[in-house]
Amino acid sequence: MGEVAEAESLIADIEALGAKLQKARQSVGRVIFGQDEVVDQVLITLLSGGHVLLVGVPGLGKTKLVDTLGTVMGLDARRVQFTPDLMPADILGSEVLEEGADGKRAFRFLQGPVFCQLLMADEINRASPRTQSALLQAMQEHKVAIGGQILPLPEPFHVLATQNPIEQEGTYPLPEAQLDRFLLEIEVDYPDAAAERAMLLATTGASEAKPVAAMTARELLEAQALIRRIPVGEQVVDAILKLVRGARPGEGGLPTVRDNLAWGPGPRAAQALMLATRARAVLDGRLSPSLDDVLALAEPVLRHRMALSFAARADGVKLADVIAELKASLG
């Protein structure tokens, strides 16, 4: 009886979370037009407790999406514009020497913008490797080291980074270790004609729709804990392992992988896919993930964790085609 009651409680919690997420979707949709899949994938990332890399040309609403999500999810959101002269202290904070009324001097720590719950790192690849590594520690450990002290970051803590794919002059490519810290890499494309028309009419009138809060930071933390309790069937687990392991050149899988990839995804890719498929199922109002969830999330989970060989790039091979063959091999 105890197991039955526990299962019923889990189902009720999942259904309640699904209802909250529908409200969040609707609230974001009042402000962000024509990017439903992008919004869903960012919500999946937040539910999974991860960070996301948004790749797209300027003017597609990436910054507005982060501001909107901060309001809708009840999170303290901040933004940092990354530039080549940005220093680690500009993100983490710094110590300043202050003199008190009694004449005594003491150091006081001034928190940087990283001490928030939702940090937008705009054009992250414009910052120097030294600054990127400072953000990497925060993303990986959810804490920072300043002046010999270890300071925890607020909970939850998520980084939504953007990257411009067309302006590569004066940029520093993200190292593989940092790319792997992002749960998903999401491509933000142009909206279709109907969505752009709706956007045009909604954003150039006398008043604009405003997002409303649908969740709180505590509810998001509870949702992240709930996602980890959702059962995953053996078929889905096997598909995740087959997909991730099959994307490694040394595993002796598909000829496409052996011939075209320099390196493939590590175990963190399978962990990301496991969490993301659960979150996608809840977002769609289902109680457990299916093979369709694995196929839908394969590309955003894998593409930044794989690299084409020099010969493959010279031959015009695309990562999307390699991933498509991997997905097809799942049957």
From TrEMBL:
Note the Pfam families from the entry: AAA_3, AAA_lid_2
Q: Which SMART domains match?
A: AAA
Q: Where is the AAA+ ATPase domain?
A: 48-192
Q: What's the domain of life for this entry? A: Bacteria
Q: InterPro entries, from UniProt?
A: AAA+_ATPase (IPR003593), ATPase_AAA-3 (IPR011703), CbbQ/NirQ/NorQ/GpvN (IPR050764), ChlI/MoxR_AAA_lid (IPR041628), P-loop_NTPase (IPR027417)
Q: What is this protein called?
A: MoxR family ATPase
